[in-house]
Amino acid sequence: MIAPPYDVVDEGDLKALLERSPYNVARVESAPGEAESRFGEAARTLAEWRRSGILRRDESPSYYVYEQRSRVGGATTTRRGLFCRLRLGEPGRGEGPEQVRPHEATMEGPRAERLALLEATGAHVSPIFGIFEDDEHGSAAETLAEAASAEADFEGADARGDRHRLWMLRDGRLRRRLEAVIAASPVTIADGHHRYATALAYRDRRRARSGAGWSDDDPAGFVLAALVPAGDPGLVVLPIHRLVRAPALPGDLLARLAELYVVEDMTPKGWDGTAAHRLWGRVRAGETGPLTFGAIGLEDQRLHVLTARSRRAVEARMPERLSPASRRVDVLALTETVLRPLLGIDHRDLASGERVAFTENVEEAWERVASGRFRLAFLVNPTRVAQVLEVAASGELLPQKSTFFYPKLGTGLVLDALDGA
Questions:
Q1: Do 223 and 124 meet the contact criterion of CB atoms below 8 Å apart?
Q2: DSSP strand E in 125-240: where?
Q3: 3-state DSSP assignment of residue 335
Q4: b/e for 191-209, b at 16 or more Cβ within 10 A?
Q5: Do residues 26 and 38 touch, judged by C-beta distance below 8 A?
Q6: Backbone angles phi, psi at 45, to 5 degrees
C-alpha cells in the first residue's frame, strides 16, 4: 500500500508501484496519467477503497507513532515522529505549534497539481514533515522511544529497503507528554512546503464557500503532519544539485567566476561518471572549510572545482536583507553569486522550474550534462539541519529544493479524509 511521496517518484518508479499492487497509494498520490481527468480518477479510486473496506477510518481520533530505519552512507539511522493533524496558520505567525515556519520557497507547478488533487479527493494523502523543539530533558524523544518499544500495529519494508513501523498511540499518559512538549514549540517545515501551501489555499477556498458557517475546527483548517524532535539523530539532509538549461553560456563566465572563486580544472583526471564522483569528493572535503562547489560543463566536457577566495567576499555580494544564518547556506550563496548575477536566473525562473532542475545523484548530474539535456550542473554540499532551523526562525526562505531530508516519509500509512465520514 505504501509509496514514496509524489515528488521523488519518476515514471519507472510509478510503473513498478502500480504493478506491485492494485491498492498501492501511488494510484492516488501520484494521480497517474496526463489529462486533467487523472485527478478525478484518483478521487474515484480513493472513494472505492473506502467503500470496499480497503481503507477504514479509525473509530476514534488518534495520534500515530512512526519509525523509519534506513541505510545512509553505510550506516543505519532510525528516526521517530508523530502523525497528527496540525492546525494551519499563516507562516511565521502565532505561537507554539500554531507558529509554522517554512524554510524553502515553492514552485508553481507542484502547487497547482497538489491543489487539484486535494480538491478532487477531499483528503490529505501524504503528510508534511515538521520539526519541533524537544524540552531540555528530551521528553518527546523518550516518549516516542517508549511507544516504539511495543509491538507495532504495522511493519514493512519499501523497495529501497527502508523499514517502516507504526503504532496507534493508545496510552493517554504518553499522549499528554507529547502534547505538552509540542504545544510549547513552533513547527519548522522540513519537507512538504508545496503540500502546506496547498492546504492553506484549500482551507481558504472552503472558508470562503462556507461564509458564516465556517468553524475554526473544520477539518480543512488542519493538515496531516509527521512531527519529529529537532534532536533526533535520524534527521539526515542530503544534497540537491542544480541542473541548468541555457542555449549558451556567457563568454566571460570563467573570468567573472574567478573574481570570487578559485577555478580549478579537474578534467585531466577524466570526463565520465567516475570523474564526477571524484569532483564530488573535492566538494565534500570543503563542507567544513572554504565554500566549495563542483561545476560540470563550464566548458565543453570539463569538470571544475570552485573554491571561494574569501567567505566574507562571497557574503558581501549577497543581498543586504539576508540574515547571517541565510548567508552561511551554500545553496543560497550559489544562487546569489552565480545563478542570478552570472547566468541571469532570477527568482521567477526558480519558481517556474523552466531553467533549473534538481537531482540528488552526482552521476545523474554528469549524465544529463554529457547527454546535452542540460548545459551545466553545479554540485552543492547539503544544508545542515541547524541551518534549516536558523533560517526558518529568521523568517526567511531558502531557494526551491535546498534540502532533501532522507528518508522521505512513507505515503499511505495514515491518510486524513476531511469529510468526517
A1: yes
A2: 128-132, 154-157, 163-168, 187-191, 222-229, 236-238
A3: helix
A4: bbbbbbbbbbbbbeebbee
A5: no
A6: -65, -45
List of residues 6+ apart from 122 with CB closer than 8 A: 43, 417, 418, 419
Distant-in-sequence, close-in-space partners of 406: CB < 8 Å, separation ≥ 6: 70, 72, 236, 237, 238
The pTM score is: 0.91
Q: Cis link prior to 407 (omega < 30° from 0)?
A: yes
CA distance 312 to 315: 5
Please name the residue that has the C-alpha cell 535520524.
Answer: 234
pLDDT tens series, the chain, 421 aa: 788 888 888 888 888 888 989 999 999 999 888 778 999 999 999 999 999 999 999 988 899 999 999 988 788 999 999 999 999 987 766 665 568 999 998 888 888 999 999 999 999 999 999 999 999 999 999 999 999 999 999 999 888 889 999 999 999 999 999 999 999 999 999 999 999 999 999 999 999 998 888 998 999 999 999 999 999 999 999 999 999 999 899 999 999 999 999 999 998 767 888 999 999 999 999 888 899 999 999 999 999 999 999 999 999 999 999 999 999 999 999 999 999 999 999 888 888 888 999 999 999 999 999 999 999 999 999 999 999 999 999 999 898 889 999 999 999 999 999 986 5
Strand bridging mode 154-157 / 163-168:
antiparallel
Distances (CA, A) of 134 to 65, 140, 165, 186, 390: 16, 6, 22, 10, 16
Give phi and psi for 295, each to the nearest 5.
-125, 130
